[in-house]
Each structure stands twice: as structure tokens, then as C-alpha cells.
């Protein structure tokens, strides 16, 4: 990252002494190697350093903004799975070329549309033109108080508190960014679940399941879904990386106060500690997610269980 | 309605094609066979002859890319021509034993839950009740620790146990027709005998019936009333087991020679040549290149089925026992000269 964060922090009017003081305060005057060791030492104590932009501890900044991002990503995941899995299963199950082509078209479209463009399109259509979506700023209308809650996910907290008004407001704000992030993510899900379903339907056990009279809806809702569940779970972890990247863009488009927006703003400020904190957080979440997927898949696939 | 003595199952000239590399390829060619009430009909043929496809055609579950292009399947007087016609048939009135039970049971559900689901499709009962019935069925099939088996997944069980679970599933609702595709492969002789005895005793009564697909002529000879011999997607001979094996179609005779040799523990002399695979150009009788008594007529004209004693054979020169060169019969192998 080029540029001197201390200068940016101090502002264009600052004197050289002021800048030097800031350098000393953040340790920018030390050699890079020492700065790095300091950072690692801090990390060991759970200290991610201080943001030059906000003046707060990076860890505090991230924890405060993390729920917003999690809420966005979870909502996008729900969108992606709710669209991707049924379409994929239908495409994989259909003997007709048309359905397969449609799914292929949708998924190619999804892969090739950038999130920011889709986000802007959604804003132009549903906010500017139709005026049925709230202004694309933040998680709630101004003046609506955020509910107290343990999860920090406003929709969930509002639901737990039984506050339907806040729930509606929050859901309204969440919808467009979740679509902007989730629709492109549905593309790989459609393709993979179509492939999984098609190969499953060629398998001996799906033939047998039907041969012993399992009604079609049970075949699909129970046997097919349950058999592709491990693949879908693994897929979910894979597209998670995709969603974290997309969230940075979508949060900026919708002024969504999550860690992605924080990372972008910090980047503009050359706020190294903050950006590094974001990268570390994403990596940590990623690792945890893969561990979780392993556990879930062991549960979902009896052949992997040790008994 | 239907005459109660009419056939339980009738396949009339069923042709099935699959989408291959070079277009539609026939796998079943005018397959015609019937199962009467109270009889067990064997289907025998070399690998790739179309035995499993015949089972799938009866079940109305052809694989993706396969299509029935002509013919009809009539079960108990009803033509099975639409998916609707199969509603409430499979698993209840039509039982099925798969060729590979370990790969056929769904790996992500316990075998017990699959058995219970089938029992509950047959008649309304509580899950607990159905479980009890499942345990009883397994016990009846000689399964020890049936409760433990019910709780297991297919991969935790031996092939033989999976086989019995599948047989329990097939018999769970006292079906009128059971289609068994190699139900005893991989089982030892005692268990095989026990299971085939049971299948036969279940099926050869109350106007029920079965279709028993196997490689094993010994099985056919011991447990079946009639046999259909398949070759290259076609039923080339059908009739009472003893008749078919004694005389008529040269191919059936060749198979018998191999079976006898195997029984005597001597190396059988294989029928010369190889089985055609779907897509091969077939002119005249498909067996002609391998047939000891083939003539120019055979190579030019595909024989239509014709009566021969109590059999129906697709052969221009069906031959009596004495006339047949003993293809595959080791004790007379020096006679094999074409
Ligand atoms: N899904 C498929 N698509 C295309 N061709 C197939 C398919 N499955 C099987 N075949 C071919 O169709 C032919 C008939 O297969 P089928 O399974 O009915 O044989 P079979 O008599 O049951 O043999 P086996 O004794 O080995 O079980 C074979 O030549 C096989 O290669
Ligand atoms: S028709 Fe001719 S070639 Fe075919 S089995 Fe009969 S004798 Fe042999
Ligand atoms: Mg087979």
C-alpha cells in the first residue's frame, strides 16, 4: 500500500512535528521488521493494533461491525441456496433439454454479473424507479432504534424481541443487498447441484428407491436432497469466500456498516492495521467454517462416521 | 373385467433404445414374455443380453436416455403405459430384488428406515408397528439380531445381509409379482437354496408369480417353471425349463452345455465367438456368427418366433436333442466342428 498513513491521518494542514508525533504514537517510525514483530506480539495478546482512521482498537471496530456483515452474508446464503438448490435439482432431474439449458443460462448469467452492477441495478429499479425499497443506506431507517440483542443480527434480534415493526424495517433494508450478493452466488450452486442430482439419478440406489415404490415427491424431497446435502454443505463453504469478497463491494454500494465497508474505508486511508485485521478475520472465519463443514458432513454422510 | 386365469404379467414386443454415441441404439428388441399366475419364470442370458433392462422395462423405470419405442407391458389386465398407471404398484403389488443390494440401498438412511417406509406404503400403520413387522420379516429370512440390522446402514452390512434386507423389502407387502435380478449372487449355496425356496414358496401360490433373472441355469432348472432365454436384447426361446434345455434353440443348448460342465467341475468349452453389443450391426439371426447349424437363410433373415413343442423359439432350424452338436459340452467336445 503506497502512501503515508500518518500524513493522511494528520490531515493536509498538519505540521511536520505533528506528523512525527503521530508516527511515534502508532510506531510507524520503527523499522518494518520491528513493526511486524510488534504486531505479532500484539496478536498473541488478542490485540490487532489501533486504527489510524477511527482511533479505536481494530478488534473493537471489527467486533462492532461483524454482525452486520454476518447478517448480510447469511441472508445472501439463504437467497443463493433457496434459488440454487431447487433450480439445480430440477435441472439435474429433468430429462428435457429446455430446463437444463435454462439453468445453465441462469448460472452463466449469475457468474458473469458483477455484484456492484447488480446492486446498482436493484437500487435503480426498486428504490429510484419503483420506490418500493428503502434508501440504500444502512441497516435501518434513520430514527428506528436498533433492538438490543445478543446476536447483533438486527432481523434476528427483532424477531426474538417480537418487534415486528423493526423486523420489517430491517428486512426491507437487508433484501436488496442480500439479493445483490446472493443471486450471483446462486450460479455455482445451481451448476453443482444439477451435476450432483444428475449423477445421483443414475445411481443404483436412486433407481432402487424408485423401484420399491417411493413416491416422486419423497424421492426428491427426502432422498435426493439428503444425498446431495454433503455436497451442498461443502459448496456453501466454498462460496463463502466468494461472498466475503462480494460483501466488501455490496457493503460499499449499500452503505452497509459491516466489516467489508470498514476494510474499504481503511484501505482508502492506508490504515494498515485495520485492513490486516479484516484479512485475519476473514481467514479465521474461513478456517472455522471448513472445520464446521467437516463436522456437519461427518454427520450427514454415515459412511464417514466411525462406528 | 379380466379373466382370472389370464397372465399376471405380459410383455408384448417391447423394444427399448438408449442414446448412444452414434444415435439411438437398441438394447431390447421385441422382448415378449409372460408370467402366469402361480409360476416362477426364469430369465437367463449372458452378460449384456438385456436382462436388467427387461426388469426395468417392467418396472417402468428405464435409465436416463433410454426409451421404450414400442410394445406394451400388461400387468393383471392393466396396460402400464403411463407413469400414472404405476401409481401404487411398485413396492406394493410389484416387488423388486436388485442385482446389487449393497449399492442399491440408500447409503444415507438406515436399512430399517427403508424397510419401514415400504411396509407403511403397503398399509397404514404406526412406525413402531411397522418396525416390529420389519423385524419379523427379517427373522423369517434367517437374519440374526434383526434389530441391530435395522439400525445399520448398508455399508455396515455384508452383501448377504443387504440381500436379505432387499428380499424383505420386496416381500413386505405380499406383492403379486416379484422381479428378482440375480437375487442370490454372492451368497453361499446353503443360503441361496434357503432364499430361493422361500421366494418360490411365497410366489407359487394364490395366483402370484415371479420373474427370476439369473446367469445360473442350475437355479433355473431347480426353481423355475418356465424359462426365457435372452440373446442380444431378444427373447430367443421361451417355454418349460426342461424342454428349452433339451432341444430347440441352439443357443439354449450351448448354455446348457456350459452349465453341465460347471456342475461336473470341468472346464466348460465356451460357445465360440462373442456376444454382440448394442449398436453392432445385426443382420439375420443375431446368433448366426456363433451358431453351429447356421445357414444362409439365418444370416439373411431374422427368425420370427415360432412354436416348437411347448416352446416359442426364434430359430430357423430348431433342432431336436439328438441332432445338436454339443457346443460347450466337454464330454462331447470333439464333435464340435463347424
Ligand atoms: N445406462 C445405460 N446406457 C446405455 N447402455 C446401457 C446402460 N446400461 C446398460 N447398458 C447396455 O445395455 C445392454 C443390456 O444391459 P443389461 O444391464 O440389461 O444386461 P444384463 O443382461 O442385465 O447383464 P448382466 O448379466 O451383466 O447384469 C448392455 O450391453 C449394456 O452395456
Ligand atoms: S436361426 Fe439359424 S443361426 Fe439363428 S440360432 Fe437358429 S439355426 Fe442358429
Ligand atoms: Mg443385469
TrEMBL record, chain A:
**Which superkingdom does the taxonomy of this entry point to?**
Bacteria
| Localization (cell) | Cell membrane
CDD domains, alphabetized:
TM_PBP2
One annotated GO molecular function is:
dipeptide transmembrane transporter activity
Q: What are the entry keywords?
A: Cell membrane, Membrane, Transmembrane, Transmembrane helix, Transport
Q: Name one GO cellular component term.
A: plasma membrane
Matches recorded under InterPro entries: BPD_transp_1_N (IPR045621), MetI-like (IPR000515), MetI-like_sf (IPR035906)
Show the stretches that span the lipid bilayer. 72-93, 105-127, 174-194, 228-250, 278-300
Q: Which Pfam families match?
A: BPD_transp_1 (PF00528), BPD_transp_1_N (PF19300)
Q: How does it sit in the membrane?
A: Multi-pass membrane protein
Report domain ABC transmembrane type-1 positions: 66-297
Q: Which family does it belong to?
A: Belongs to the binding-protein-dependent transport system permease family.
This chain's protein is named ABC transporter permease
Amino acid at each position: 500500500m503506497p502512501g503515508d498513513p500518518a500524513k493522511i491521518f494528520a490531515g493536509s494542514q498538519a505540521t511536520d512535528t505533528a506528523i512525527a508525533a503521530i508516527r511515534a504514537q502508532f510506531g510507524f517510525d520503527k523499522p518494518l521488521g520491528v513493526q511486524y514483530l510488534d504486531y505479532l506480539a500484539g496478536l498473541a495478546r488478542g490485540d490487532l493494533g489501533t486504527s489510524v482512521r477511527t482511533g479505536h482498537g481494530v478488534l473493537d471496530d471489527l467486533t462492532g461491525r461483524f454482525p452486520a456483515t454476518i447478517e448480510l452474508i447469511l441472508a445472501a446464503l439463504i437467497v443463493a441456496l433457496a434459488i440454487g438448490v431447487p433450480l439445480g435439482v430440477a435441472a439435474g432431474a429433468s430429462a428435457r433439454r429446455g430446463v437444463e439449458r435454462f439453468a445453465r443460462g441462469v448460472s452463466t448469467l449469475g457468474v458473469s454479473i458483477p455484484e456492484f452492477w447488480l446492486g446498482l441495478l436493484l437500487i435503480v429499479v426498486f428504490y429510484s424507479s419503483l420506490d418500493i425499497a428503502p434508501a440504500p443506506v444502512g441497516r435501518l431507517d434513520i430514527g428506528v432504534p436498533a433492538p438490543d440483542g445478543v446476536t447483533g443480527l438486527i432481523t434476528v434480534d427483532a424477531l426474538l424481541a417480537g418487534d415486528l415493526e423493526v423486523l420489517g424495517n430491517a428486512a426491507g433494508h437487508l433484501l436488496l443487498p442480500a439479493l445483490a450478493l446472493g443471486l450471483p452466488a446462486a450460479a455455482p450452486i445451481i451448476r453443482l447441484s444439477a451435476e450432483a442430482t444428475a449423477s445421483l439419478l443414475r445411481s443404483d440406489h436412486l433407481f432402487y428407491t424408485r423401484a420399491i415404490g417411493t413416491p416422486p415427491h419423497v424421492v426428491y424431497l427426502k432422498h435426493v436432497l439428503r444425498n446431495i446435502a454433503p455436497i451442498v454443505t461443502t459448496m456453501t463453504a466454498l462460496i463463502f469466500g466468494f461472498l466475503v469478497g462480494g460483501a466488501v463491494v455490496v457493503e460499499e454500494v449499500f452503505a452497509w456498516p459491516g466489516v467489508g465497508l470498514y476494510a474499504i474505508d481503511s484501505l482508502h486511508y492506508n490504515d494498515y492495521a485495520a485492513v490486516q485485521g479484516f484479512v485475519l478475520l476473514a481467514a479465521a472465519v474461513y478456517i472455522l467454517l471448513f472445520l464446521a463443514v467437516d463436522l456437519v458432513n461427518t454427520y450427514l454422510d454415515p459412511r464417514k462416521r466411525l462406528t | 373385467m379380466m379373466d382370472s386365469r389370464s397372465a399376471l404379467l405380459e410383455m408384448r414386443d417391447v423394444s427399448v433404445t438408449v442414446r448412444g454415441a452414434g444415435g439411438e441404439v437398441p438394447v431390447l428388441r421385441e422382448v415378449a414374455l409372460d408370467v402366469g399366475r402361480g409360476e416362477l419364470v426364469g430369465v437367463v442370458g449372458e452378460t449384456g443380453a438385456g436382462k436388467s433392462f427387461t426388469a426395468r422395462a417392467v418396472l417402468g423405470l428405464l435409465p436416463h436416455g433410454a426409451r421404450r419405442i414400442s410394445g406394451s407391458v400388461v400387468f393383471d389386465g392393466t396396460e402400464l403405459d403411463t407413469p400414472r398407471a404405476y401409481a401404487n404398484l411398485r413396492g406394493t403389488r410389484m416387488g423388486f430384488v436388485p442385482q446389487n443390494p449393497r449399492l442399491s440401498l440408500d447409503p444415507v438412511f438406515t436399512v430399517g428406515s427403508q424397510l419401514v417406509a415400504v411396509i407403511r406404503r403397503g398399509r397404514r400403520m404406526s412406525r413402531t408397528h411397522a418396525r416390529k413387522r420389519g423385524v419379523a420379516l427379517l427373522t423369517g429370512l434367517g437374519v440374526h439380531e434383526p434389530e441391530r440390522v435395522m439400525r445399520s446402514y448398508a455399508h455396515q452390512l455384508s452383501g448377504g445381509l443387504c440381500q436379505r434386507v432387499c428380499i424383505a423389502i420386496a416381500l413386505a407387502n405380499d406383492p403379486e409379482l416379484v422381479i428378482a435380478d440375480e437375487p442370490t449372487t454372492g451368497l453361499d449355496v446353503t443360503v441361496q437354496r434357503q432364499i430361493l425356496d422361500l421366494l418360490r414358496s411365497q410366489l407359487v401360490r394364490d395366483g402370484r408369480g415371479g420373474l427370476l433373472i439369473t446367469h445360473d441355469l442350475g437355479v433355473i432348472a431347480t426353481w423355475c417353471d418356465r424359462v426365457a432365454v435372452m440373446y442380444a436384447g431378444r427373447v430367443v426361446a421361451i417355454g418349460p425349463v426342461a424342454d428349452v434345455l433339451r432341444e430347440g434353440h441352439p443357443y439354449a443348448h450351448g448354455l446348457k452345455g456350459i452349465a453341465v460342465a460347471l456342475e461336473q467341475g470341468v472346464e466348460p468349452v465356451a460357445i465360440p465367438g462373442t456376444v454382440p453389443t448394442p449398436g453392432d450391426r445385426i443382420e439375420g439371426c443375431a446368433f448366426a456368427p456363433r451358431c453351429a447349424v447356421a445357414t444362409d437363410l439365418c444370416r439373411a433373415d431374422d427368425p420370427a418366433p415360432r412354436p416348437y413343442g411347448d416352446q416359442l423359439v426364434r430359430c430357423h432350424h430348431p433342432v431336436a436333442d439328438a441332432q445338436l452338436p454339443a457346443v460347450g459340452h466337454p464330454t462331447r467336445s470333439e464333435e464340435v466342428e463347424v
